[in-house]
Design a protein that fits this description.
Number of strands: 0
Order of helices and strands: HHHH
Shape: rod-shaped
Largest sheet: none
Strand content: under 5%
Helix content: 40-55%
Number of helices: 4
Radius of gyration: 37 Å
Oligomer: single chain
Distance between the termini: 130 Å
Length: 185
């Protein structure tokens, strides 16, 4: 069943402005002229695109989705490397040992072992510094706060561990002279 405007016997009210509710279509007879420009209502002029913000003000940054190369990922990698460095316990133990030895000569075989342990522990701490610094470099307003905090904490602790490794390496004493036992004829 179709109806045409001629079939409608009810009064046509086309002189009144559209209702303020919005969202309702306005039907006009087939012969009526329509304006080509759309009327802009005053309540929508200067409206902000985001609810609850002032015109000209930026919308609050939403956390962007993390990815393989996001600040959050590098913050987690930095925390894992920091945990590995701390749990190995080499750096603080070696620094304490070098302070307690206080320059007394030690066996030449031990010096090589000590140097290798300090270099590996220092390298792990330096990797932590690199990943935490990269995480802080990749931050933007949408980065989650926990990523910023954990990267900052990992960076500070890792820098202290690099410093501990450097000081312990500097404090390694000289090798003790080897005594050659006398040869009996």
């Amino acid at each position: 069943m179709t109806s045409t405007p001629e079939d409608n016997t009810g009064p046509q009210n086309t002189d009144q402005p559209p209702p303020e509710e919005g969202g309702r279509p306005t039907f006009e007879p087939a012969g009526a002229e329509t304006e080509s420009t759309e009327e802009i209502r005053p309540e929508h002029q200067g409206a902000s695109p985001v609810e609850g913000t002032e015109p000209g003000q930026e919308a609050p940054a939403e956390p962007r989705p993390g990815g393989a190369f996001s600040a959050e990922t590098f913050a987690l990698v930095g925390l894992v490397l920091l945990a590995v460095t701390i749990m190995s316990g080499q750096l603080i133990e070696m620094l304490t040992s070098m302070i307690l030895v206080s320059g007394q000569p030690i066996a030449p075989e031990q010096i090589g072992q000590i140097e290798i342990q300090l270099m590996i522990g220092g390298a792990m701490a330096l990797l932590t510094v690199i990943f935490a610094g990269l995480s802080l470099t990749l931050t933007n307003p949408g980065t989650r706060p926990w990523a910023k905090w954990s990267a900052t904490a990992a960076l500070i602790v890792a820098l202290l561990l690099v410093l501990a490794a450097a000081v312990a390496y500097y404090l390694i004493p000289e090798a003790a002279e080897q005594m050659i036992p006398p040869i009996f004829d």
